[in-house]
Design brief:
The complex is a heterodimer of chains A (about 375) and B (about 270). With about 375 residues, chain A is mainly alpha-helical. Chain A has 13 helices and 4 strands. Chain B is about 35% helix and about 25% strand. In chain B, strand 6 (about 80-85) and strand 7 (about 90) form a beta hairpin. Chain B is globular and about 55 Å long. The N and C termini of chain B lie far apart (about 55 Å). The interface between A and B is large, with 30 and 43 residues.
């Protein structure tokens, strides 16, 4: 042999020791600290964590999942979707159907149909509501509906090689079209009121501290699970092909890869994460309506990711936390200025922090 | 797999999707025409490349050299005419990825490497293997592939740069990395668009050595403006002009061809 063996490892380690420690700490906070402070520490104690705080944190965990999904498709693959709130809302609606069925006869009209159907003078559930009273069927829909839509939409968009801003505009139009569809009462999803007044999950009352905690823990575990999966994806060769598509797609093709399959796989996976996040979100906030599909919501998701730092997995989680934390404070303190602040934040981040908060942290460490 | 008896010359095995160059010709372009908005970038171009040949293609700007590369690699579809890789593979019916899988590698005019990946990862992505989604998710480099990457790093003189981000390489090094990526694909036909642009004299010399060494195992088409470089490697030169072949033959003959002189030096 004329050459020296080259010993360059590929970044195949899932996490560094520090990463694992962080992950374990997050797990401890979710599984032990929060339940302890909320359920066992008496309300009078200053250490008590209010129900409001738990609900808010649970909501933000769901948003963080969406940010993670967005980062996979935008940060790593370079495809900016401005329709991700649609997948989130579809997951929410799919699980919402089950929650509506769980109301049973306890609605205002005492019928076995949801109130809005009674109001429309419908006598029976439309066909697409069949089996939604079964938990596992609804859970399957939470995954299948966003996945199927993403697969079909993605196949045609990627096959036609629609890229960049054109793709973003089409996704925006798609979520807008679905929003209009869901606003119609005849669509059978409660029109502009959507689904609300949920009573139970699996027969257990929804408005209890324990249920709230269970949903919070489930959201936290789902987020950490997806974080692990996402990390496994981006450290695999598959992940390196995704970034290669982002940076030089034609070279990827001339290397013999079919970008369509890669884009479709990550796009669909991303949509599924959003669907699951939506399904966990709806019982925690107690409502889902078509405004969740509004184009502005999708843009906000992109802002979380940009603020946190594209192409880093932790960044978007931080971004979702920071922006939504600020939002819940702002909308109480100065409700009319929130959108201005959000716009300003986006402009400032784009101008001065192209790598987001993660970029800033990296700079400070140096 | 099916076996076709081909008369007196005996029989050979045909594998669908694999190159069959049993007639000694790796690439056929026949009467290929491509127009963009009425402008004929290729005009009835016919050209054949033999197995193991190193062919240089020269021609003034707008002669159709890059369009020809685009047609061969599936980026542009011919309006009329046929493009065949060996006897059996109709390139006009295949996607870019399929063509690359079948064994045609291409180096762009502007070096195109994955700048955010390390040099090593660039080669890992290029290395010949199953390039499906599933394999990328769960596959690992085999020992042979790791050895092969090491060998290529040595060939392209980037061993000590292996862990470096490719974006940090010099222009010439990027050109070399791109050639290395082509080698990793183990193509049967290599298309090189201006491989020595931006290289130092020393690098150019080494590239010439490399290409000469590769010819024989691979068929190579080089498009180049650098005449010294062309004369140093070429056995056969094709001159393109206004989308078709103006002259073809050994460098000395072509250089003294009156039509060629006219096109290059002006009337």
């Amino acid at each position: 042999m004329r050459y020296q063996p080259v010993s360059v490892g590929l970044a195949q380690r899932l996490f560094s020791t520090k990463g694992w420690t962080g992950l374990a700490a997050a797990l401890g906070v979710i599984l032990v600290l929060v339940p302890l402070l909320n359920l066992l520490v008496p309300v009078s104690s200053p250490l008590h964590l209010s129900d409001y705080a738990v609900a808010l944190a649970g909501k933000i965990l769901c948003y963080a999942m969406v940010a993670l999904a967005m980062d996979l498709i935008w940060g790593y693959t370079g495809i900016l979707s401005l329709g991700h709130s649609l997948f989130f809302a579809l997951g929410g609606y799919a699980f919402g159907m089950y929650l509506m069925r769980q109301i049973g006869h306890d609605g205002s009209y005492g019928s076995n149909l949801p109130d809005f159907m009674v109001f429309l003078d419908w006598k029976a559930y439309p066909w697409y509501w069949s089996f939604t009273d079964h938990f596992w069927y609804a859970a399957m829909l939470v995954i299948a509906v966003p996945a199927l839509l993403a697969l079909v939409f993605g196949y045609f968009a990627f096959r036609s090689r629609i890229k960049g801003v054109y793709f973003s505009i089409i996704t925006q139009a798609m979520t807008y079209a679905f929003m209009l569809l869901f606003f119609r009462n005849e669509t059978g999803f409660g029109g502009n009121n959507g689904f609300t007044d949920f009573k139970r999950i699996a027969g257990i009352p929804i408005a209890t501290g324990e249920m709230r905690m269970a949903l919070f823990i489930l959201s936290g575990l789902a987020l950490l699970g997806f974080l692990l999966l996402a990390r496994a994806i981006v450290t695999s060769k598959f992940g390196r092909v995704l970034t290669a598509i982002r940076d030089a797609e034609s070279r990827v093709m001339f290397c013999g890869y079919n970008p369509l399959r890669y884009k479709l796989a990550i796009w669909t996976f991303s949509a599924v994460i959003c669907g699951i996040a939506g399904a966990l979100y709806v019982p925690q906030v107690g409502i889902i309506n078509p405004s969740e599909m509004s184009p502005a919501n999708s843009i906000e998701i992109a802002i979380w990711v940009a603020v946190g730092g594209r192409g880093t997995l932790i960044g978007p989680l931080l971004g979702a936390g920071i922006v939504n934390g600020a939002k819940s404070w702002f909308t109480v303190a100065f409700p009319e200025y929130w959108l201005y602040f959000l716009g300003l934040l986006f402009v400032l981040v784009t101008l001065f922090l192209p790598q987001g908060v993660m970029g800033l942290l990296k700079k400070m460490r140096r | 797999m099916e076996t076709l008896a081909s008369g007196d010359s005996g029989s050979h095995t045909l594998i669908p999707g694999e190159l069959d160059a049993s007639h000694g010709v790796v690439l056929y372009l026949e009467e290929v025409t491509v127009s963009f908005d009425g402008f004929r970038a290729l005009n009835n171009l016919s050209l054949t490349i033999d197995v193991g040949e190193l062919r240089c293609i020269i021609g003034p700007n707008g002669a159709g050299k890059t369009t020809m590369m685009d047609v061969i690699t599936g980026k542009t579809r011919p309006d009329t005419g046929t493009v065949f890789f060996g006897q059996t593979l109709d390139l006009s019916q295949m996607t870019e990825a399929q063509i690359a899988q079948a064994g045609i590698g291409r180096k762009f005019q502007k070096p195109t490497v994955f700048e955010n990946h390390s040099v090593y990862e660039n080669l890992e992505l290029a290395i010949k293997t199953n390039k499906g989604v599933w394999n990328s998710l769960f596959g690992r480099l085999s020992g042979e592939q790791t050895d092969r990457i090491g060998e290529i790093l040595y060939t392209i003189n980037l061993v000590d740069k292996a862990p470096l981000r490719a974006g940090l390489l010099s222009h010439g090094q990027k050109q070399w990395l791109e050639i290395g990526m082509l080698l990793a694909q183990e193509p049967k036909l290599l298309l090189l668009d201006e491989p020595v642009a931006g290289m130092t004299d020393h690098e150019t010399e080494r590239t010439a050595e490399l290409l000469t060494a590769l010819a024989g195992q691979h068929s190579i088409i080089v498009v180049e403006h650098d005449m010294d470089f062309v004369s140093s490697i070429a056995r056969k030169v094709t001159v393109l002009h206004e989308g078709c072949v103006l002259a073809e033959g050994p460098m000395e003959t072509v250089q003294h061809n009156e039509k060629v002189i006219e096109v290059y030096l002006g009337r």
